[in-house]
Design goal:
heterodimer, A: alpha+beta, Outer Surface Protein A, domain 3, three-stranded antiparallel beta sheet, 3 helices, globular, B: alpha+beta, Phosphoenolpyruvate Carboxykinase, domain 3, 2 domains
Chain lengths: 91, 293
């Protein structure tokens, strides 16, 4: 995954933020996924499709971490969401 | 019929329209699942199988929910060795495909139609009633939960968990002390104050479930352990773990939203805690310590 890749949320999901703990449910497989505070920030930022680098900026703006860590964590997280069918990533 | 039946729901509806609503039927029965009265019309030979299962849940009252079953001689469902569900957008109509039947459940119309394959047994009707009840419960602001339920003098405790987690063990160890509502499947619905739980006719290993209800005192997430303790669970984890025990088959985002709403509201109104327990009745001491102080 590259920083310029575009990411969009699977719109057919249900999501709740419980004081920084997120729950995402995918109706297609009835799977429940939990998100931490950073995951919630990224998921909520994806209300509109965004480039990976924009999501890195969201994390840098809200959490105390360096650029390299943010990039690595965001890409790992998005890859996990993609594997679960929760987001689509387009080059 | 096509092996890809679930990919053309309009075709499935046409198939149903050739049978339903039934013009005639051989047998019927009525049962109560919580406050909902279910009326079932079905082919000959079904009552003698189903009535012993439903015992104290049978009723002659007019139905709130109608369920009709009919045999279809040409129906080959062998492409569905496992259960598969599909939902129409909006979350009103749901379809269930299984090796021995197809069902169409219309929540708004409060009805279910079942086409039985030649290999089916009358127990298919029981399966569909369970599934339909799960949808109806959500529509009514409740859920059907994999759990044992025990009614005590301070309210009912729900012992939640998937198969193998100890529901029947809890039931066996509790029934000499308190009335057991069910050891397998509990209907949970919002009440004027808090939530109320019902035993359902969908019993488990103990084959013991009663047509009674009680106010819900707490939901306990079962975890086998070498000790007994009632532990707090963070809100998100509690809701997620509770949701994993809900009987749920739909594939619509509306139903997922509704399930989340019910689970979150329940968490606001009723404690959801973890019960670490060893298989002895002494786990009630931990519950008493946590809830009677």
């Amino acid at each position: 995954m590259l920083l310029d890749d575009r990411v969009s949320r699977n719109t057919i999901t249900a999501y709740r933020n419980l004081d920084g703990e997120g729950l995402v449910m995918n109706p297609s497989d009835s799977m429940l996924h939990s998100l931490n505070e950073v995951g919630c920030a990224i998921w909520e930022a994806l209300a509109e499709p965004k480039a990976v680098r924009d999501l890195v900026a969201v994390v840098l703006g809200q959490f105390d971490c360096d650029q390299a860590t943010a990039e690595r964590d965001v890409i790992e997280f998005l890859a996990a969401l993609q594997a679960q069918g929760l987001v689509k990533v387009q080059a | 019929m096509s092996a890809l039946l679930h990919e053309d729901l309009d075709q499935v509806d046409r198939q149903f329209a050739r049978h339903f609503p039934l013009a005639r039927w051989d047998e019927q029965l009525g049962l109560k699942v919580g406050p909902v009265r279910v009326g079932v019309r079905m082919p000959a030979g079904s009552r003698e199988v189903l009535i012993p299962r439903y015992g104290g849940f049978l009723t002659d009252e007019p139905a709130d929910f109608r369920c009709e079953a009919d045999r279809s001689t040409g129906l080959d469902m062998s492409a569905y060795p496992n259960i598969l569900t599909r939902s129409r957008p909006g979350g009103r109509v749901h379809y269930v495909f299984r090796w021995d039947f197809i069902a169409r459940i219309d929540v708004a119309d409060a009805s279910a139609w079942i086409l039985l394959a030649p290999v089916s047994t009358p127990l298919c009707v029981d399966s569909v009633i369970r599934i339909a009840t799960s949808f109806m419960a959500v529509a009514r602001g409740g859920v059907l939960v994999h759990s044992a339920a025990v009614a005590t003098d301070i309210g009912a405790f729900l012992f939640c968990g998937i198969s193998g987690c100890g529901k029947s063990t809890v039931g066996k160890l509790s029934r000499d002390r308190y009335p057991l509502l069910t050891d397998e499947m509990t209907l949970v619905e919002k009440a004027d104050v808090g939530y109320r739980v019902w035993g359902t006719p969908f019993w488990g290993e103990l084959q013991l479930s009663v047509n009674r209800s009680a106010p819900l005192r707490a939901a306990l997430l079962l975890a086998k352990a070498p000790y007994n303790a009632v532990e707090d669970v963070p809100a998100g984890e509690a809701i997620m773990e509770f949701m994993k025990t809900i009987l749920y088959f739909g594939q619509s985002v509306e139903t997922c939203d509704a399930l989340m709403n019910v689970s979150m509201d329940l968490r606001k109104n009723v404690p959801i805690k973890r019960l670490q327990f060893r298989p002895e009745a002494t786990f009630w001491e931990a519950i008493d310590h946590a809830f009677r102080r």
